[in-house]
Amino acid sequence: MQDLKLAVTGHRAFGSYGHLTLATEDKLSFAPGQFAMLKPAGALEPLWRRAMAIYRARTTAQATSVEFIYQVFGRGTQALRRLRPGDAVQALLPLGCGFDTAPVAVGGREALLVAGGVGAAALLALAEQLKREQVPTRLFLGGRSQTDLIGLDDFSALGVSAHIATNDGSQGVKGFVTAPFERFLQEQAEKARAGQFVVYACGPQPMLARVAALAAQACLLTYVSVEERMACGFGVCVGCVVAVKTQDGQSDYRRSCAEGPVFRADELDWR
Fold this sequence. Notes:
The protein has helices at residues 75-81, 124-132, 152-157, 178-187, 189-193, 205-217, and strands at 2-14, 17-24, 35-40, 50-53, 56-59, 64-71, 88-95, 110-116, 137-143, 161-166, 173-174, 197-202, 221-225, 241-245, 251-255, 262-264. By secondary structure, it is an alpha/beta fold.
């Protein structure tokens, strides 16, 4: 974890989203699924930084470039949206535990990525790593409308086959992304029973709960990246806890910024 001042080198707005590119001369390394805490450099309001999944990162001998895609919700993201090339961002990164690709990289298994809305921003770096590891990868991407299909072109450029769902039917099937995911598991039930798939998901809590339930029915190993509001980003404030199962059937809590944001789905208490 480092606290760095990064330069804005690119910033594109689309719909209610922003695609922010930052650069530093420091050499940084990231694991897919890790995140950063961002705020405009020197800003006094809002006080707390905003948690952003690392969408993509590139490191050369001279610099590191880091990309983020975020949705504008409140004052923090509105402040970020006003940034222009040449501005500076105070960034705490990298943070959290990322996705484990070891289980899917053996035995000819296929990775199933399930993303809802801006949750897709946490999965592109994973798709890039899976391609480097030559792991077959399939994407289930959902959003409210065509505009909310975050990163679809970037996933397609990696050769990832995509199953699309939108709430309004503007692209793909009409409905939630869990519908094509469920249909795929039904059609591929024999492979699922043989453990040929590993699931990776990020999106709203109801979507993650449904993905976890469907994957559990199919006895599939599943990792989810939870979307919790964070203040500090490194475990001190304990404001982003999620409920986990204990051996005696009760619940305990884990910090999504420190022990997460990636958890095994069967560890979480979805009640």
